[in-house]
Amino acid sequence: MSKQRESVLPIAAACCPPLAVAPLSGEQAADLAPMFKALGDPVRLRLMSMIASTDEVCVCDLTDAFDLSGPTISHHLRVLREAGLVDSERRATWVWYRARPQALKQLAGLLDIATPAAV
Amino acid sequence: MSKQRESVLPIAAACCPPLAVAPLSGEQAADLAPMFKALGDPVRLRLMSMIASTDEVCVCDLTDAFDLSGPTISHHLRVLREAGLVDSERRATWVWYRARPQALKQLAGLLDIATPAAV
DNA sequence: GAGCTGATTCGAGATTCGTCAAGACAGGGA
DNA sequence: TCCCTGTCTTGACGAATCTCGAATCAGCTC
């Protein structure tokens, strides 16, 4: 991530109507599934929530919150980054992570239920 | 699924504020991650969209839509079912699947972005 | 009851994933 | 310049996942 060329992300590729409105094509599903998959691990879901609930987070703070090794946290952050859910930026010694609201919004829209009364 | 006792699902366990509002606890993340994980496979994501976009779908129709064997489709449907995302019901010879709007709504709420202006 | 159709479960093989230890790289301070 | 701190990458291993064929179960029709 030292290189910022990952700004070309799979986000724009998929912009679909809610699941409850129309079925996805195979291609759309293949584009979107990695995002859900990235959130499908408890550690990554918690990392995502920690990153999204503040403006920026330092890796050092994230590492301290888990009983996992540094490389493991780094690996999970990389998965989130490659899924387009977060951005990273090196600033002096530390690396800071920031959420990508676009991506979260896209997933939320996909899961939106057309019938609010449905229970 | 022949037995309907799976109606006791992990849904009620987790009911959390949006990711962008407060970080998840380890327990909350462990409850929610399986749902995202279930949607993290292209085949399952497409199955979910096919089920959610109509009232009910017969397994036979789902199987026909993929180049996969029956047991494989059955496996993916089981994952969706155990994650609490769909319900199944046997009616005569056929088994019908239905989405659980509660679950989709919960996930959508979790991904909701507090700042609609954010881009 | 016998036979048929549809769906699930079981068992096995190949692939992917999660984790860590060791090494490499980037940047700041003496 | 050299060393130290902090982070990422690489390589490796066990565990979980995806897929299929074969066998099993559920229900209808004759």
From TrEMBL, chains A, B:
Protein's name according to its UniProt entry: Transcriptional regulator
CDD domains membership: HTH_ARSR
Membrane-spanning segments: none
Residue ranges annotated for the HTH arsR-type domain, each copy included: 24-119
Pfam families cross-referenced by the UniProt entry: HTH_5
Gene3D superfamilies, per database record: Winged helix-like DNA-binding domain superfamily/Winged helix DNA-binding domain (1.10.10.10)
Example GO molecular function: DNA-binding transcription factor activity
Keyword line: DNA-binding, Transcription, Transcription regulation
Gene behind the chain: arsR_2
Organism per entry: Planosporangium flavigriseum
Keyword DNA-binding applies: yes
